[in-house]
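REVIEWER CHECKLIST
Item 1: Sequence provided? yes
Item 2: Single chain? yes
Item 3: Sequence as submitted:
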Amino acid sequence: NTITITPSATVPVLTTTDVIIPVPPATLENGINWVGIHTITATTFKLRLANATSGTVDPASATWGFIVFRR
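Item 4: Structure as written out by the authors:
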């Protein structure tokens, strides 16, 4: 079974046409993968994460980086 969560983040300078590349922390637990990202408003985006393992993964709090390309 794959479990997904979709946290959102606010970035004041983000636009709906920007391309966002997530950079996960080096300490990201095995089995946690990013599977999608999209803007939902001019300043907010959502990152979809998935646990593709058959077990429980309880990730620690972590800081992600993001690369934003302006189109």
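Item 5: Key structural point noted by reviewer: The chain has a mean pLDDT of 86.
Item 6: Recommendation: ____
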